[in-house]
Amino acid sequence: MAPANSARTRRGTGWLTTLIVGILLAAANPGVTAADPGAVASHIDHVRFEQPRLIDAGVYSAAMNSVVRVRILRAVDPEVPAPTLYLLNGANGGVDGSWLDKTDVVSFFADKQVNIVIPIGGSGSYFTDWHTDDPVLGRQRWATFLTRELPPLIDTTFHGTGANAIAGISMAATSVFQLALTAPGLYRALGSYSGCIRTSDPQGQAMVAAVVGRWKGNPLNMWGPPQDPTWTANDPYLHAQDLHHTTLYISTGTGQPGPLDTPEALHGDLIQSTWQLLFGSPLEAVMNLCTLQLRDRFQQLGIPATFDFHPIGTHSWGYWQQDLHNSWPQFEAALSQR
Known about the structure:
Number of helices: 10
Order of helices and strands: HEEEEHHEHEHEHHHEHEH
Oligomer: single chain
Strand order of the largest sheet: 1-2-3-5-4-6-7-8-9
Number of strands: 9
Helix content: 25-40%
Mean pLDDT: 90
Structural class: alpha/beta
C-alpha cells in the first residue's frame, strides 16, 4: 500500500497532468479553423503559472492574427469539470489594471468551482468585430474571438462544462449584451455594471465615438457611418427581446460619492480619489440615466432582469467589485442548472 502522503501528492499534481493533456487536446482540436486552409487556426500559444491556480496564457486568434493575453483563475478543484465566468475589462482593455489587479477576484473565488477567464486588450474596441482594420487599433475581431475561438479552447484545456456566464464594466457593460446577442445560448447569465447600452441613437453614437476616439480609433472603421445598419444591429436596446431566456443583472450608481471614493478607502491614493470625484462621479450619473432607460425598455417588453440601482457610487472599481459579489449568486444558480 502506498503511503498516505504519496496519495496526496498524486491528487495534488493530477490537475497539472490534466492541464497538460488539455493543452495537447486543444492543439489537436483548435477552436476555430481558419478560412484559408494554409492559415494557422486559433490555439493556446503558451501558458505561464503565476500561482498554482492563476495562469497567464497567450491565445492565438486566427480572426485577429495575433496572440491575445488571457488571465485564467482555475476552479478550486481543477480536476472536476467547472463552468466558466468571463470577466471583461473596461475601455482600457485592462492594460493598466484589470479585474485581477483592481478587485478581490482571487480571494472571492478561492473556494468556488468556476473557471474565471479575463481577456486583456481591446482598448476602445467595444469587443466587437470591426468593419475594417483601424490604422491605430489594428484588426479588431473581438466578437469572433470571444464567442467562437476562445470558449472551446477554455473548455477543452481547462475542463470546462460548456456552461458560461459573462460580465463587464463600463464600455464592456455594453459589449456583454452585444456578445450574448451575437452568440445566442452561449451565456446563461450576464452582468452589466455601469454601462450605456443604447448605441444607435444620436446620444449612443456620440458615446461610442467618444470611447473609441479616446484610444485614437475611428468609429467609422468599427460600424461604418452613422446610417450604416451595423449600428442598429449592435444596439442591445433594440434587440432586448432576444435576451428573454438569459439571467440578467444590471447595476449602476448615482454618481454621488460614497465611502469607496475616499483616499483612505483607496490606500492613500489621492490622485485616484480625485479622479473618481471629478470624473467618475458625473460619468456614473450618465450611466444611471442610461440604465433607467434600459429598465423601462425591459419592463415594456416584459423581460425579467435584476436592476440594482445603488443610492451612491462613482464609476470605479470598488463599486464594481461589490456588483460582482452581488450578482454571483444569480450567476452560480444559472451555471449550475442541468
